[in-house]
Amino acid sequence: VRLVESGGGLVHSGESLRLSCLASERILSLAHMGWYRQAPGKQREFVAEVTTYGSTNYADSVKDRFTISKNNDEDTIYLQMNNLKPEDTAVYYCYADHISRFWGQGTQVAVSS
Q: Are 50 and 69 in contact (CB under 8 A)?
């Protein structure tokens, strides 16, 4: 399974970005998928997930600002990030749990104050 993220960039505090993660195979109906992020000098941390049933979970730090969704027909999951803060600056990684965990290559998000 190959995962390709896109949508990162440089924005100002309070602005929005939408990340996408395209899967190489039709696994969205079979896999829990989600996002982690890693800021410079910090460990990778959980951001959000969407299960095969469509239920979602979020880290407390992004709840009410980020929304994860998926489109099975497009083999893509999304992360809508609103009201971005400088502390959201990180490389964002998409993952898929299907027998084992697969990771994308990451997309950089930078938020200036």
A: yes
The owner of tokens 């109906």 is 29
Tell me the C-alpha to C-alpha distance, in Å, between residue 26 and each of 19, 64, 95. 19, 29, 14
Query: Quick one: which of 61, 77, 86, 64 has its CA closest to 10?
Result: 86
pLDDT per position as a tens digit, 42-59: 999 999 999 999 999 999
CA atoms within 13 A on the CB side of 53: 3
Tell me what the pLDDT averaged over the chain comes to: 95
Q: Specify the DSSP element, H or E, that contains 45.
A: strand 45-50
Nearest 5°: phi and psi at 23?
-95, 145
Residue 82 phi/psi, 5° resolution? -110, 160
How confident is the model over 53-80, as a mean pLDDT? 95
Beta-carbon count within 10 A of 49 CB: 19
